[in-house]
Each structure stands twice: as C-alpha cells, then as structure tokens.
Amino acid sequence: NCVGRLRKDVLDPSLAGYYEFYAMGLLGEYYLQREQYDSAAYYIKRYCAMTADDTRPMIVALSSLLKAQIMIFENKFDSARVILNDKELKQICNYAVDLNQRYYNTLSNYYYHTGNYRESYANMRRMSILMDSSRNELLSHNIAYRNMAHQRDTTIITNSIKIRQQQNELDSLTFWRRGWICITIATIAGSLI
After folding, report:
1. pTM for the whole thing?
2. pLDDT tens digits, 53-76
3. What is the DSSP string of 131-167?
4. CA distances from 27 to 38, 43, 65, 141 (A)
5. How many CB atoms lie within 10 A of CB 95?
6. What is the pLDDT of residues 157-177, one digit of tens each?
7. DSSP state letters, 169-180
8. Alpha helices in the chain (DSSP H)
9. In this structure, what DSSP letter does residue 5 have?
C-alpha cells in the first residue's frame, strides 16, 4: 500500500489527508485500467468517502467520474447515465483538459457497455483528439525550450570565440611590440659599440 509508505514526518501534517485520498484515486484508476474491478471499486469507494465533504469543483468532478466508472462495471447504467448527464459535471470537465479526457473516456466506456458502439467510438475519438492536442502542446513547449537553450549556448560559444580572437590579437600585438622594442634596443646598442 503506497499510502502507508508516505513519510508523514516529511510532509506537512495538514496535507497528509490530501495525499492519502489522492493516492486512493490513483490506485482506483490504476485498477480500472488493469480491469481489476473489485480492487478498483475498493479504492474508488474509499476515495469517494474521503472526499464526500469536499466542495472543490475538480475533486467533485473526479469523484463523480470515478463513481460513474464503477457503476458502469457494476452494470448500473441508469445511475452512471445520471452522473454523466449532469450539466455541472460537463462544465467543470470543459475547463480542465485532464478531466475532459476522463469524461470522454468514461462516456466511451458507458456507451460501449450499453451496446452503443458508434457513440463509444465518437467519444473515444474526442478523447484521442484531446490527448493529441495535449501532447502537441507539450511537444511545442519542449521544442521552444530546446531552441532557446540552443540559441543561448550558440551565443555563449560565439562570444567565447570572439573573446579568444581578441585575446590572440592582443597577444600578437604585444609580441610584435616587444619584438620592435628588442630590435630598437639592439640597434641602439649596436650603434653605441
């Protein structure tokens, strides 16, 4: 149990409950993906019990989506449909890409299990489009960062080369200046002898 392994002495004690319910939700989703519905139901029900009094919209939405997933796998399709048709849930999910992906995934599962494969496929496509746009956005941020780092490194190297060239020019001038001084001294000394 990963919750038991949390080092509560390192964490802020007021946040320990947050990490615990967050871990319950993650474990529930993990078991859903593995199609181990008994384990998923256990962790999701614990998550929902821990967040029952929480009024934060994102927590409420995630809790609703997880409940709907369990209801789908328990063949309680009417209860799942009531949750998924909630207008407030749809509004909250529209503001967060991650929740929107989960919403379309849950809808896709709902339609798949109720035999409406066309709607299941349509919602799976919506989820895929959101995932692709998220990946593209992340990729464009990574490319921009790499370009900025490359430009910075190129500027540093160019400036380093310029400084080295100027240092070589100064060394060269110093060498010739010393050479002329030595020749001048030798000429003066030769004329005095």
Report:
1. 0.59
2. 878 888 888 888 888 988 888 889
3. HHHHHHHHHHHHHHHHHHHHHHHHHHHHHHHHHHHHH
4. 12, 6, 14, 30
5. 11
6. 888 888 888 888 887 777 777
7. HHHHHHHHHHHH
8. 16-33, 37-50, 57-73, 77-84, 87-95, 97-113, 117-192
9. T
